[in-house]
UniProtKB/TrEMBL annotation:
GO terms for cellular component: membrane; oxidoreductase complex. Its cofactor is Mo-bis(molybdopterin guanine dinucleotide); [4Fe-4S] cluster. The keyword Secreted does not apply. One of its GO terms (molecular function) is oxidoreductase activity. SMART domains: Molybdop_Fe4S4. GO terms for biological process: cellular respiration; nitrate assimilation. This is Assimilatory nitrate reductase (NADH) alpha subunit apoprotein.
Length: 898
């Protein structure tokens, strides 16, 4: 039994992993850690499915080298590391250290993150190291620094429970931070007077139980919060003593707010929200002292992201609402170690231990501590600029670690081009075939979750251990080790670590070093964790920094009203609002917004392997208001092309009135390995916030048009289909099933001989039986290959999109032997027994489909989520599907009353 931490979102849930004996049917058992203060035993659907993602299939198990002709050769670590070190050395000698760059990730452990920054900033002497946190939290970082003098999240999850009002801004908490959302909902069940407000252009699952949803115009948040700031002042809701003693800049911030948002009508127009709704929100905020404002990517990922952050913090500073239980601004982090990365100075403009690269005293402090030969003097290139520099040849060597930029960066086709231009591209990943690793000359096999060992910090400053409970597979090695080996080969001293424990100890010591009245005081201080022996490090229980003495844990910052600007005051920052960088126009009239879905994690390299996570939303899609779809001449359920000035993609249209008019929403997860053309990153405007450098992922002018096809097919197969880019159908997506793969296909032109086509496509060799059925009078065709009674593969082809139920077909593949009725069903293209068709998955934990839930609601007159849970189990494990179940109940009742 191992206590560790979930590798997905920034909630940072504690996990207990128990490995059974080899040969046991379910060898690995994952459960929530009842004692972890983030989740107290709960896990969301992604966490619950962790065991399904740990198989070694497809893993990169030894270093790979690629030659000029694109051939891939397996290599030893010595060969691979030598190649990296010599390549870097040559480029540095010829072009200087600025020609080398690193692009790392909030999914690294703190120890990995620390050494790679030490190597780059202290030994190579460049700051050309940036991280995917640039795409994620950098606006929050910049906003915190402006307001507090240091990148600080003062509060904790309990504050959300204790608050009387929680405002969720640009955060689909129900899907992206499910356990925090559940804690919030639980606290409201206990205190029904508690209020929840959601600020999001879309009506998301998070809005479902909100008291108020402000469907603001994309990018208008600064108007909204400037309006609130003015309202608070006008209504005398100002903590004058706090403002006078502990802040600066209030007059300037108020003047800027009044100038832009002094009248409710102006704000209402800018935000596209009725005046009455604004009034309700403002009055609620004004009259509630215990208010927490949670924000994430709807705020950060904007060309005015930093101002959005400060406009929110301003309202808390003016009212003195922070530093006490149940109140404060709360930036909720995305990745498991977004915070740890910030602590070790992972960004191109920061230094280790929350120190600043543009401050000579800070640089000196770090260099003295490291005893390093140099220290970077200038901030390095931020992510988007870094890849641009690779594109134009300034960066010649690039090492990408634990991130997949060909999918996740804006203008992603250009990023792929940029990678192709690097003289040396090194990628450390678990897989050698990700869209990014596929371009690398050197692929270094990294240890993944369950194999690697170190620490992470979650959204509430809580540091916990990630621990290994599986043996290292093949030759895979931890990322910190690969970095140290390259450092040694470059002739650098200071990288002789034997274990992550030693690195952690150094990191803890640096946080405390000269962190006192005579040195550079900073809040980040984990000196109390220095000097742990290996055993104590292994047994470390979650604790929140600052940790000045062993055993400390700090639930909340700012209770002493002390901030980290030189005068110890906080700052209100004037935030004159700006519209998003590029407005829609005649050519690209719609606003493309991008984000996450409930059951997938980022570029799907891990969650895409779990069949139970695949069925909730199996295909890449674009959401659009039905009226807008009508205007664009596209139909619900059909394939459409989405295009912007930067690129294009193909996805299935989902019409929903939850999506505001003139906007689109596309999820970020699909990539070139599992879909024909669905990387939304290719479309995203690469414009960034001028202060933080964070891209405007939520606002790109775009266009939707039909993607005409002549035929549709669905294929289920026990082995992968073998098509190449050249002979692939116009549209395809691959979906993981339990022991099989499902493909959705669509193509152009007539398939003259469906039988020949299906044989070639399925490539199953010589099964004992082929069923071929041409439906009379139609062009519908189906073929199925059986070995004895076991289904090997089947394909349904039709000029229409209404192909057989996928959940029913999936069930047939789970059977060892088909019954006669099943075979009849296969030929008919539908189940003989309607009860066999569970419908699209709603509850992924127990694989409960929509039809099953609707039947239960209808047959038993169920009226609550709890009743549905008791009847069919749906919603009783992680609870992430409860918003959907609630909607199904409401729809069923509406239908009944119609
Ligand atoms: N299931 C799942 N969970 C995840 C992840 C995942 O991949 N999958 N990733 C993790 C990571 S790294 C991150 S960063 C977090 C992100 O967590 P979130 O920020 O909650 O997720 P997003 O879906 O990116 O965006 C949130 C919302 O911002 C809204 N939005 C867009 N434009 C605006 C605007 O102008 N103003 C406002 N107020 N809102 C706007 C979008 O409509 C969207 O609903 O999730 C983490 N959790
Ligand atoms: N359009 C659009 N794009 C976005 C966003 C958006 O909202 N819209 N959000 C942005 C945000 S907030 C984020 S955080 C990024 C996330 O984007 P990415 O970081 O690109 O996404 P991941 O799929 O998490 O990539 C992690 C990679 O690391 C590998 N990996 C996992 N564990 C390890 C390890 O221990 N070591 C090593 N070496 N490799 C490992 C995985 O296999 C995977 O290939 O996407 C950003 N891109
Ligand atoms: S909420 Fe889910 S994904 Fe996030 S840390 Fe907890 S279990 Fe993992
Ligand atoms: Mo993120």
């Amino acid at each position: 039994m191992t206590c560790t931490t979930c590798p997905y979102c920034g909630v940072g849930c504690g996990v207990i992993a128990t490995v059974g004996k080899a040969g046991e049917p379910s060898r690995l058992h994952i459960q929530g850690d009842p004692e972890h203060p983030a989740n107290y035993g709960r896990l969301c659907v992604k966490g619950s499915a962790l065991a399904d993602t740990l198989g070694l299939e497809g893993r990169c198990l030894q270093p790979l080298l690629r030659d000029g002709e694109g051939r891939t050769l397996a290599a030893s670590w010595d060969q691979a590391l030598d190649r990296v070190a010599t390549g870097m050395r040559r480029i540095i000698d010829q072009h200087g250290p600025e020609a080398v760059a690193f692009y790392v990730s909030g999914q690294l452990l703190t120890e990995d993150y620390y050494v790679v920054n030490k190597l780059v900033k202290g030994w190579l002497g460049t700051a050309n190291i940036d991280t995917n946190s640039r795409l994620c939290m950098s606006s929050a970082v910049a906003g915190h620094k402006r307001a507090f003098g240091e990148d600080l999240v003062g509060g904790n999850y309990r504050d959300l429970e204790e608050a009387d009002l929680v405002v969720l801004v640009g955060s689909n908490t129900a899907w992206c931070h499910p356990i925090v959302y559940q804690r919030l909902m639980q606290s409201r069940r206990e205190r029904p007077e508690k209020r929840i407000v959601v600020v999001d252009p879309r009506r998301t699952a998070t809005c479902e139980q909100a008291d108020l949803h402000l469907s603001v115009k994309a990018g208008s948040d600064v108007w909204l919060f400037n309006g609130l700031l003015t309202y608070l002042e006008e209504h005398g809701v100002v903590d004058t003593e706090f403002v006078a003693k502990h802040t600066g800049g209030a007059a300037e911030a108020l003047a800027a707010a009044r100038a832009s948002a002094g009248r409710l009508e102006v704000v209402a127009k800018a935000c596209g929200v009725p005046v009455a709704m604004l009034q309700t929100f403002y009055a609620m905020f004004a009259s509630t002292r215990k208010v927490v404002t949670v924000f994430s990517q709807g705020v950060n990922q904007s060309s005015s992201g930093t101002d959005k952050v400060n406009s929110i913090i301003n309202c808390h500073l003016l009212t003195g609402r922070l530093g006490e239980p149940g109140m404060g601004p709360f930036s909720i982090t995305g990745q498991p170690n977004a915070m740890g990365g910030r602590e070790v100075g992972g960004l191109a403009n920061t230094l280790a231990a929350h120190l600043e690269l543009n401050d000579a005293q800070h640089r000196q402090l770090v260099q003295d501590f490291w005893q390093s030969p140099v220290i970077a003097r200038e901030p390095g290139l931020k992510a988007v600029d870094l890849f641009e520099a690779a594109h134009d040849g300034r960066i010649k060597a690039l090492w990408v670690m634990a991130t997949n930029p060909v999918v996740s960066l804006p203008d992603a086709d250009r990023v792929r081009e940029a990678l192709g231009r690097c003289e040396l591209l090194v990628v450390s990943d678990l897989f050698a075939d990700t869209d990014t690793a596929a371009a690398a000359q050197v692929v270094l096999p990294a240890l993944g979750w369950g194999e690697k060992d170190g620490t992470v910090t979650n959204s509430e400053r809580c540091l916990s251990r990630q621990k290994a409970f599986l043996p290292p597979p093949g030759a895979a090695k931890p990322d910190w080790w690969a970095v140290c080996e390259v450092a040694r080969r470059l002739g650098f001293e200071g990288f002789d670590y034997q274990s992550p424990h030693q690195i952690f100890d150094e990191h803890a010591r640096l946080s405390a070093w000269r962190n006192d009245q005579h040195g550079v005081q900073r809040a980040f201080h984990i000196g109390g964790l220095a000097g742990l022996d290996t055993d104590a490090y292994d047994r470390l229980r979650p604790c929140q920094w600052p940790v000045l003495r062993r055993g400390d844990s700090t639930a909340r910052l700012f209770h002493d009203r002390r901030f980290f600007h030189a005068d110890a005051r906080a700052r209100l920052v004037p935030t004159p609002p700006r519209a998003p960088a590029n407005a829609p126009d005649d050519e690209f009239p719609l606003v493309l917004n991008t984000g996450r879905i409930r059951d997938q994690w980022h570029t799907m390299t891990r969650t895409g392997r779990a069949s139970r996570l695949a069925n909730h939303l199996p295909e890449p899609f674009v959401e659009m208001h039905p009226y807008e779809a009508m205007l664009c001449g596209v139909q619900d359920g059909t394939l459409v092309r989405v295009a912007s000035r930067w690129g294009a993609m193909v996805a299935r249209l989902r019409c929903t009135a939850d999506q505001p008019r003139r906007t689109l929403f596309v999820p970020i997860h699909w990539n070139d390995l599992n879909a024909s053309d669905a990387r939304v990153g290719a479309l995203v405007n690469p414009v960034v916030d001028p202060l933080s450098g964070e891209p405007e992922f939520k606002h790109t002018p775009a266009l939707v048009s039909p993607f005409p096809v002549d035929w549709h097919a669905v294929v289920f197969s026990r082995s992968p289909l073998q098509f190449t880019k050249a002979d692939a159908p116009a549209y395809w997506v691959r979906i993981q099933g339990d022991g099989f793969l499902r493909y959705e296909l669509a193509g152009r032109g007539l398939i003259e001989d469906p039988q020949q086509w299906s044989r070639a496509l399925l490539g199953v060799g010589q099964p004992s039986t082929w069923l071929d059925v041409h439906q009379d009078g139609t062009q519908d065709y189906c073929a199925a290959a059986l070995d004895a009674d076991c289904l090997l593969a089947c394909v349904y082809l039709s000029p229409r999109a209404d192909l057989p139920s996928r959940s029913w077909l999936g069930r047939l593949f789970e059977k060892q032997a088909l019954s006669e009725a099943d075979v009849v069903g296969l030929k008919l293209g539908r189940s003989v027994d309607p009860a066999d068709d569970a419908g699209a998955t709603v509850c992924s934990c127990f694989s409960v489909g929509r039809n099953t839930i609707l039947d239960a609601i209808r047959d038993n007159g169920l009226t609550s989520v709890e009743e549905v849970g008791r009847c069919v189990r749906a919603g009783t494990n992680c609870g992430s599907c409860q918003p959907e179940i609630r909607a199904l109940i409401a729809n069923a009742r509406l239908a009944e009353n119609a």
